[in-house]
Amino acid sequence: MNRFTLLFITGVCFCNGLVAQDFIDKDSIFQRASTEQKNIFMVFSGSDWCANCIRFDKQILMNPDFQSFINSNVFYLNADFPQRKKQPLGLVAQNEALAERYNPNGVFPTLLLIAPNNKIIPLSYRQETAHQFIDKMKKALQSLKTND
User: Which residues are CB-contacts of 13 (< 8 A; sequence separation ≥ 6)?
Assistant: First the structure.
């Protein structure tokens, strides 16, 4: 399994129609991020009901430049809360556990950078272009490095 495949570890992949058939336990990703000293980009979405989530998916997550950027810089973890799509029970339980810890108020989309030391930087999506969002992420990632 290559690194790009690992980026899409839960739910439906947002990239060019690829679909994740299985998901990797969130603890595995957190362990790997810690071992590799890499940050996690976590997205809480409502893929079939949240207009801003759908827009973020189309404008940012599906953008090839953004996919290349996250492939090189972070692990990607999507906690999706669809209303109509069915998900495996294990995935639902995992997403609920993630939400309980990282998104207790149920705000969608919620975008977080999580450092291996558990420092969290929330990101906002203001309908930027993919390149503007990449610049925003670069600044946040730099902030995580300088505040170690």
Answer: 19, 20
Q: Is 92 part of any domain?
A: yes
> Per-residue pLDDT tens for 63-122?
999 999 999 999 999 999 999 999 999 999 999 999 999 999 999 999 999 999 999 999
In a domain, 148, yes or no: no
**Roughly how many angstroms between the first and final C-alpha of the chain, as a whole number?**
31
pTM for the whole thing?
A: 0.82
CB-CB contact of 28 with 38 (8 Å): no
| Residue 10 near residue 88 (C-beta atoms within 8 A) | no
Structure tokens at 52: 């801003």
Looking at the DSSP bridge assignments, the partners of residue 45 are: 80
Whether 132 is in a domain gets the answer yes
Helices (H) and strands (E) in the chain, counts: 6, 4
